[in-house]
Amino acid sequence: VSHYxxxxxxxxxxxxxxxxxxxxxxxxxxxxxxxxxxTFSNNQWNLGDEIGKDWMQCSFYLALxxxxxxxxxxxxxxxxxxxxxxxxxxxxxxxxxxxxDREVASFRDxxxxxxxxxxxxxxxxxxxxxxxxxxxxxxxxxxATASVLADKELIDGLISSQPGGFDVMNAFVKHHLQxxxxxxxRSLKLELDSxxxxxxxxxxxxxxxxxxxxxxxTTIITTTRTPAISL
Length: 231
Prior knowledge:
Elements: H1 9-22, H2 38-41, H3 47-51, H4 59-64, E1 71-75, H5 86-100, E2 109-114, E3 117-118, H6 126-137, H7 149-160, H8 165-201, H9 210-225
Parallel strand pairs: 1-2
Antiparallel strand pairs: 2-3
């Protein structure tokens, strides 16, 4: 799970729960799905040992490359704050590389989650999806920050050393957001079509308009007052 520490904890939990429910592959139910979360997996009192001197030995890298990791779930608020943090970019870089590596069959995808649902599946609120898309449209991953400047320099260097550098990484994120918007549009259309069909199924004959009522009344009165003709 990739996330920004400043996200309200209840929103973070809702994002993970929504992903677990929708992506459930466990026989024991969605509660039996397993997630690696740095907040709880790392010793926060000794981060130096957790991160280490070699980035290939840091816990983030080892978790993603363990061979059992099935994908990355990034929890986003409406400001897409996680994409502005350097260590989230590190996770994003590893995610990008794993999605390109066909030999890693267990790694499936990159999921964008919010407190209201999974964006990739079109199950998040429309307001949240649009807010995140607007934010990402003008986002430059190279502007991400870190609490420790050396961490930012390390991660920026890793990304810059890849073919295409930050341009490719920016395109990777925007590609997923573009797909997310298409999914949201498709999901919303299906829901609106379903509601429209329900309303049409229950529709009754519309009431007469005032003009039609006056016309009908005039016809009745005229017919009533016409004297009968005897032959």
